[in-house]
């Protein structure tokens, strides 16, 4: 018996609305993150991730309402990433029903933030989110980027992941900027490299296009798979992905 | 029902899940309300030592002890279960727990930690908590657990029912011991089977 591989739909939310193309039939309101999250819950999603892509402080308040409304109807773990700058932000998100937070650029700007969150809420509540690009400039061949991949930092992705785990990150969300949007499969080398240096769970993200793309990510070392557009545009359901994983011999719920 | 309000993280879901299971729920640490409730749910996430500190700040141990002494039901969840044991050991530091059960909560010996996700359980024979949901998976998120159970039955009390799970090593996933029950996993995050477990608990009250 072992822990099941998790399948995690991710919703980009701005000002309380899902912003990436949603093309579901039979949804009362396709842009409503609460309704979409409930749909994924019913499909068998193992967790839900909200990525707050909001630009302004006013809009951020809306995110708390979205989290609270979702947590009233969706009884699986809820991760919220984007805009987390302090331990107090985490406290506020948890008070509204979030279980975990994803931290990305704020931790790059101030790595001590990771320790502050882990000390107060535990490593299990802290996901380090990395947007990774292949680059000869980095010793491992993988560099950390910000601004959706448009800006390269001087951080080697593997060295940064290692440091973040030491500082208290309890999970890595590894998003390949190269693979993101291509729908040609996950970056398996990147996942394998992260697995090798990480004792915490690794979530593979970026590149999912077909049901058969998911099992190789698990074989490469991922504990969970995350996808957005293939679920939102109705190409795949969570159930489709789980069936394909099970057929490939992967344990799913 | 009362969900003990002592500053623990996400208690929102515990309240909502209990409501969905059919309970009327209040989030409070008021001594009178806690004592009078039909059932008390003790949530808990994060570090064992931090949870004990927060519990002590509202004299949670005394509130729990008083209920149990009167045979009043208590359900601990995750670290809310761990603190029922004698000690918690984290990074070499030992913190005394509430000591309702003998034993120590220690780091799991597993290749990947935290143990995060949906796992199966080996349900104790005769379990009331898992009635009808014996074959379901439940959501775990923790690095520490009680890995031994040493409390025997003491007449005239019924034998404690201990449910196990495995992540690297076997550990205690749930206990039903008279008025005190607890789960290492999060029923409030385990979808419909988790709600059913809460319903089962409410039925025993």
UniProtKB/TrEMBL annotation, chain A:
It is found in: Cytoplasm. Its EC number is 4.3.2.10. It comes from Galbitalea soli. The active site is at 12, 131. Transmembrane segments: none annotated. Pathway: Amino-acid biosynthesis; L-histidine biosynthesis; L-histidine from 5-phospho-alpha-D-ribose 1-diphosphate: step 5/9. HAMAP family: HisF. This is Imidazole glycerol phosphate synthase subunit HisF. IGPS catalyzes the conversion of PRFAR and glutamine to IGP, AICAR and glutamate. The HisF subunit catalyzes the cyclization activity that produces IGP and AICAR from PRFAR using the ammonia provided by the HisH subunit. Its main location: cytoplasm. Keywords: Amino-acid biosynthesis, Cytoplasm, Histidine biosynthesis, Lyase. Pfam families: His_biosynth.
